[in-house]
Write a structure and sequence with these properties.
The protein is an alpha+beta fold. It folds into three domains: 38 residues, no CATH class; 98 residues, no CATH class; 181 residues, Chitobiase, domain 2. It contains six helices and 21 strands. The strands form four sheets. It has an eight-stranded mixed beta sheet with strand order 12-11-13-18-17-19-20-21. The longest helix has 22 residues.
């Protein structure tokens, strides 16, 4: 790390503790030189920034840098970057892997800005405090704010994002004894894992206790499918992926069998900000295929949708049948998916 940093800038603080490990003692978080380093530095005011160079792998994780915000990507979870300078009375610069961007020009009122030049195209400014641009067919147009029915910074997908926003776990009680017991235990296992790894306490409730008004604008992770979780139709009735015993319907593609499992995330239809996550199987085999909860780990990455069969436990990625991302309109048709037919 020291070598990498030294090749492109020198403004950093470095110390190597002899015999120290990743987290060896209180010195790891209470080290005087690092606080002295922080004390010598400050984040410039937005109005003082004449150049913004920003990189993000996902707006769901990091969307804003001073006076601009990346709202949507063209390719989900691939690095997006922008570089803009204020030159005379214009904001001028380029984008890469950006489909929607917002300029908070109100933070730059003192600059008397007249235009934005983006990827060589000029957009006139008329005193707006904020302006959102959308790229369609390599042409930027002004739109009326960020549409919250689409992907945007507060709800941009990636299955792990379902575990944010004061999430509540809702387990199935409408199945047979084995199904109900498994989903209840799975929800409890995930909550206990989250407590240990993330130091967070999650509400875990039965589907019969779920009230959309009581849990307004909170993320929900549904443990179970449409056949056994009584909260399914309250949250996922119109989702393009439907899961029930013996079958998954993926945008019209019928995937049959009791050995299928799935994780996916979808917008909560009664909220502009909340999401719904799903942990489900089409039968006991499929449920057990999804027992591992690697999604509660800081080093794993998950797409919007993952559909797999029980062979994943033995053969790894060969057991994955669908993997990918919804489009920015949360559709399958405009999404980016890899579909693998199961080999019999």
């Amino acid at each position: 790390m020291r070598q990498e940093l030294g090749e492109f800038h020198t403004d950093f603080c470095y110390y190597e503790y002899p015999g120290g490990s990743h987290w060896y003692s209180n010195e790891s978080v209470d080290w005087k030189p690092i606080f002295e380093f922080f004390n010598r530095h400050s984040i410039p005011a937005d109005s003082a920034m004449n150049r913004v160079e920003f990189y993000t792998a996902s707006p769901a994780i990091s969307a804003t840098n001073h006076w601009l915000r990346i709202d949507q990507q063209q390719k989900a979870y691939q690095v997006s970057n922008v570089l803009f300078d204020i030159i005379d009375n214009s904001i001028s610069g380029t984008t890469n892997n950006v489909e929607m961007i917002t300029f908070e020009t109100g933070k730059l009122a003192s600059k008397n800005l007249k235009s934005i030049i983006i990827d060589g195209q000029t957009i006139a400014l008329n005193g707006e405090k904020e302006i959102t641009l959308k790229n369609a067919d390599n042409k930027w147009t002004v739109i009326e704010g960020v549409p919250t029915t689409q992907k945007y910074a507060q709800r941009s997908g990636g299955f792990k994002q379902a575990f944010d926003n004061d999430v509540v776990f809702v387990y199935a009680t409408g199945g047979n004894k084995a199904e109900n017991e498994w989903y209840r235990n799975k929800a409890a296992f995930d909550a206990e894992t989250f407590l240990y790894r993330g130091n967070g306490s999650i509400d875990v409730i039965a589907d019969t206790q779920f009230n959309p008004v009581k849990y307004k604008d909170r993320n929900v992770v549904v443990y179970g499918n449409a056949s056994n979780n009584k909260a399914w139709n309250k949250l996922l009735k119109n989702a393009p992926i439907q899961v029930k015993n013996g079958e998954i319907n993926f945008g019209g593609k019928q995937m049959k069998g009791t050995d299928l499992g799935t994780y996916f995330v979808y917008p909560r239809q009664d909220s502009q900000t909340a999401s719904v996550g799903v942990v489900a199987g089409t039968g006991i085999e499929g449920m057990k295929a999804g027992y591992a909860n690697d999604y509660i780990s800081g080093i794993t990455g998950f797409p919007d949708v993952l559909i797999f069969n029980v062979d994943m436990l033995r053969n790894g990625i060969e057991g994955v049948e669908v993997s990918g991302f919804f489009g920015n309109d949360w559709s399958i048709s405009n999404g980016d998916f890899t579909i693998t037919e199961k080999q019999n």
